Structure formats: structure tokens, C-alpha cells
Amino acid sequence: MSYSSPLPAEFLQRLTAIVPPSWYEQVFATFHQHRTCSFRVNTLRSSTADALAELSALDISASPVPWCAEAFVVPHGQRSLLSTSAAFSEGRIYIQNLSSMAPVLLLNPRPGEQVLDLAAAPGGKTLHLAALMENRGWISAVEAVKDRFFRLKANVEAFGASIVHTYLRDGRTVGLACPEHFDRVLLDAPCSSEARFHADNPASWQFWSPAKIREAARKQKPLLFSAWQSLKPGGTMVYCTCSFAPEENEAMVAALLKKYGDAVDILPLELPFANTIPGLTHWLGKEFDPRLERTRRILPDAFMDSFYLAHLRKVP
Ligand SMILES: C[S@@+](CC[C@H](N)C(=O)[O-])C[C@H]1O[C@@H](n2cnc3c(N)ncnc32)[C@H](O)[C@@H]1O
Q1: Which of 252, 136, 222, 246 is nearest to 183 (CA)?
Q2: CA pair distance 97, 35, nearest whole angstrom
Q3: Domain map (residue ranges) of the chain
Q4: What is the predicted ipTM?
Q5: Is the pTM of this model over 0.90?
């Protein structure tokens, strides 16, 4: 395989220190290939059988995903058929990468709970939370950027997620406003979006730089602390990003451990697919707490984007 690529050389260099050598070639290749397209049936609007029958009538051939009953994969070439379907425009399916389903499944909210989604737009994970909760309980979905907030609001209405209450506000203020209030908290943090880089789409990577990573980390830390403050003792939280950068991932969880000490329990992650590696315990000469190894990175493959996941519990 040729290692020439239009992606920033410094990004690829960093990647060699994050991804084990045995995985590197596969990970590198994914930036230059097209992934399959995946979707989730919105069980608030349709049964899985009805949605599949509707798509089959459009000659869309959806294959099941073994670890998520509502998730299906279609070949890359059928993406536009899916995105122009009535099933999508009328809220019966949501097009979403499989990796984006993992944090919500991990958080595993139950009907009746109080849930916070602290960085919510456009709402893919909020809608999934509401479906798992069967529209029973309460979800606060917070978004700070106005046009993204209105997209979130429109999606919540279109997909029938009636337990979702949307708030246009800075997530950094929520911890103080609602201390120890939520049973479960999701923070899908704004990030450098390295997992979205694709060789065919220079806009995805052309503004990348180590300074952007530092800028993302500066936003993430107060959001993470706010999310933590808003979590009830005994409650659980998922912190995730679609960046490979340890500065946005392990270093953030390490900062939480440093501030809140033994109140933070990092739960071991068991994911139902093989393309994952443990969190790093050192990066660029810095050592992290060995418990960071319990967090995980999903490595990209033909089906999944990369994602970093940390599952945390507030010790009562
Ligand atoms: C990774 S995206 C969330 C994607 C979303 N969870 C989904 O699955 O559709 C991060 C979001 O955080 C928002 N954001 C950035 N800073 C924020 C802040 N201080 N408070 C709340 N939201 C913020 C961004 O505008 C962006 O919409």
C-alpha cells in the first residue's frame, strides 16, 4: 500500500503514536475509502419491520447490525436513496454512523429517568436516547450555537421525541444551575473532528493543526466539569469525541480524575465489536493515571468512524 496522502503529515505522524502498528494500515486506508452507510430505525415512529419493508420497496437492501437491533447498513452507493426517502424525511429512520450509536447504548438510559445531553445538536444521539427511553422520563438537550440549536429542535419534532426539552444555552453553566440532578449524562463534546477527515474532502482537514486540538481541549474541560457537576451521585455518564487526539480524550478524563479524585469511577468498557483499543496511559512524555486504560477508542473500519469513549460513574 502507498502511504502518500493529502492529509496533514503531522496528523498522520501523531496517528502512528496513537494507533498500534498492527492496526495502522487499516486505519490509514479508511481515510481514503468510502464507508458503508448506516441508519437507525426510529422506534418512536415505526416498527423495524415496517421501516425495512418501506425501504425494500425502494430497492434498498439493508443488512442488520448484530449488536443493535434497530441499526442497519446499506452499501455506500445507496446513501442518496436513503437520504431522499420518505422514511428519512418523515422521521422513521435516522441516518447515522454506527459509532455514534455506541455512546448511547453504553449510557443505556431507562424509561422514566432524568437524562442530560449537554452538547446535543443536530440531535442524533438525543433521538436515540428518547427511543431507548420509549418517550418516558425527561431529556434536557442543550446546544449553544443558534443555527445548530434550531436544527436540533426541528429534528426532535420531526422524530417525535416528546420527552426532549431543548435549551439554547452554554453547557458550561448547566452544572452550577442543576447540580447533582441527572441520572445519566451524555457529553458528546465539540472536538477537532479528526474522525471525519477524508482524503476526498479537503474541507474536513484543511484547517487542522495542533493549535485546533488545544482550542478544542480548552472548550471541553469546562463542559466536562459542568456535565460531572450535574450528575447525581450513583449516576453514570459517557464522555465521547470523534477525535483521535489524546489531548481531547484521555487528558480530559485525567483532568476530571485530578479535580474530583475518588468520586470518579472509570467503568471498564466492553464493546460488542473488535475494532477498539484501550485508552492511552501516556502521551508526548506525559503519564496518565493507569485507570485511563479502561476508556476505549473505536478504530475506523469499513462500517465505523473512529470514536473515543469513557464511561464514568459518580461514586455516591
Ligand atoms: C459533536 S457535536 C454534538 C453532536 C450530537 N451529539 C449528535 O449526535 O447529533 C458537539 C456540539 O456541541 C456544541 N457546543 C459547542 N460548545 C458548546 C457549549 N459551550 N455548550 C453547549 N454546546 C456546545 C456544538 O455547537 C455542537 O453542536
Answers
A1: 136
A2: 9
A3: 98-314
A4: 0.99
A5: yes
